[in-house]
Write the C-alpha cells for this entry.
Amino acid sequence: MAVAELQSESLATIKEESWFLIILRRFLRHKLAVVGMIVAFLFVLMALFAPLIAPYDPYEQNLGNSYANPSAEHILGTDELGRDVFSRLLYAARLSLFVTVTVNFISETIGVLVGATSGYFGKWVDSLIQRTVEFLLTLPTLPLLLFFSAMLRGVTIPGLPDEWSKAIIISGVLIAFGWLGSTRLVRGMVLSLREQDFAQAARALGANSWTIIARHMIPNAMAPVIVNLTLGLGGVIVLEAALSFLGFGITPPVPTWGNMLQNVQERMWQQPWLAFYPGLCIFLTSLSFNYIGDGLRDALDPRLKL
Amino acid sequence: MSNGTSDGKKNLIEVKNLVKYFPVRAGLLQRVVAQVQAVDGVTFSIQEGETVGLVGESGCGKTTVGRTMLRLIEPTAGEVFFEGRNVFTMNGRELKELRRHMQIIFQDPYASLDPRMPIGESVMQGLDIHKIGTRKERFEIMLDNLKKVGLEDYHSRRYPHEFSGGQRQRIGIARALALQPKFILCDEPVSALDVSIQSQVLNILKDLQQELGLTYLFIAHNLSVVEHISDRVAVMYLGKVVELADRDELYRNPLHPYTKALMSAIPIPDPTLKRERIILKGDVPSPLNPPKGCRFHPRCPIAVDICSQQEPEFKEKSPGHWVACWKAE
C-alpha cells in the first residue's frame, strides 16, 4: 500500500514537470550551448539597445578624422568617412541579426513542411515538388538574387523606415531560395521514416496523414534540420554582404556587418582591424548559434542521456 | 464461407480471393514492366475468438496478406469482410471506425515504437485519435493497459530505448489493446525475441485472448510457436495458401508435400529418434515469375506431369481439412 502511494505520488510530481522544462534542463547541461546562448543574447541586447550604448551617431561623418586608429575617443577607430566603427557595429547588429534569423527560421519552416509533405505523400506530389526544387537549384543563385533585388529595388513597405523595408524585401528574396536545401533534407528523412513500423502502427490506430507527419515524421527528422539551420545562420549574413557589395542589398550608409566588411577591402593591409571587427561579429554569432543548435539537438533527442 | 470448422461459430473475418501484386516500374516513363505476385488468390476465414496461424517461409506473402487485410496496403483484387462488411470498399470514416476493431502487433519491437514519443503517449495515441473519454480517462485506460502487460505506472513517461525487446513488444501489445479491438493481427510478434522471452509474450497473448475474447491471425515461420498458440493453421507457399486445417489435424496428418517437408524440419529434442527428413531442392522461385501449374512443382518430391500444367484446386479433403495438391489423398 505504501509503495503504491509512493509511486502514484512520484508519478504525479513527474507529470507536473512540463516538456519545456525537461528540454530546458537537458539544454542547460550542454556547457558550450549555454555559452553560445549567452553570447547570442548579448548580441541581441546590443542590437536592441544600440541607441543607448552607442557613443556616437553611426551616420555622423568627420572627414578630418577618417581611418583613425583605436583610441579612448573611438574605441574601435573610425572608417573612411570618420564614422565611429563601434557605433556602426552596434547598429549593424540590428539589421544583420534580423535578416539572418528571419530568413533562416522561415525558410527552414517552409522546408520542413514542404519536405515532409513531399516525402510522405510520394507519387505525383513528390515528383512535382522535387522537380520544382531541382529546377530552382540549377539556377545560379547570385545572379538570380541580383535580378530579384534589382526588380524590387524601388519597392518600399509603407510605414517602415527605409532600411527596414529593404531588410524585409532582402529577407523575402533570400527565403525564396533558402527553403530548397532543407526541403530535400527533410524529404529524404521522411522517405525512410514513413516505411518504419511506427508509422504503420499510427495508421493502424486510425491516424490520418497529417497527424502522422506532425507527430511522427517531423519530430524524427528534426536533428539534421537544426544543424542545417545553425549552419545557415552564418551563411545568410555573408550572402547579404555579397548582395550589399554588389549594390543590391542594404547599402551604405546604413550599416550591416556584411557591408562594413566589404567596405574596408582597400584598407585591409593598412588597418586590418577594420575588417576584423565585423568579421569577428559574424564569426561569434554563427559560432554561438551553432553551439545553441548542438545543445538543442542533443536536448531534444530522448536517446541521449544528459 | 464454408472452409471453417463447422461448429456453428460466427466468422469474424472472411478473406476471399485476396490478390496483391506489386508493380515493378522501370525506365524513363516508369512503366510497369513486371508484377511481383506477392499474394495470389488467398481465401480463408477466421472465427470469433479463435487463433489462426499463418506459416510459410520468408517472402511467401504472409505479411502482405495480413497488412492488406487491415488496408495498410491497398489490395489489387479480392474482398475482406469484417463482421460482414467489406473492408476494401470502406470510405475514410468507416475505415477509421474499423481501425478501432482491428489492430496489429509488429515483428520488430525496435522499429514499431516511435523513438521520440514516451511510451505512455504511444499507448494513448489510439484513444486520442478516436477521442475516447476525457484526457484523464484516457490516461487511466493507458495505465490500465500497461498493467495488463505487466508494466508499471512510472514506465509511461519513459522512451522506447529505455526498454528491452520483450518489454517493447509488450508495449506494442498494450498499444494494440488500448482501443479494445476484436481482432489483432500478430505479425511475427515473437520472431525477434529471445526464446525465453518468446514464451512470456506468447502466454500474455493467450491470457489476453481468454480474458478479452480476442481473435488473432498469428503470422509466424516458427512451426512450434504456431502449434502452441493456434486453433487452426494455414500454410502459405509463394503467395498461395496450400493447406488449411485444424492444428492437431495438420500436425498429425499433413497432406501437402510442402507441409510435410516443413513438419519434418521441426526439431525434436530426442537424439535417439530416427526419422525421415524431407529436404527440398533449390530455392523458392521468384514471385515475379512464379512457375506454371502448381507453384510448388519444381521443388516437389512427388510431382507428376499434371502438376506443371494445371493448378490444383483448393479442396476440402476431409471435414475442415483443405489442401491444394493433385496428389493429396
Summary: Chain A touches chain B through 27 residues (CB under 8 Å).
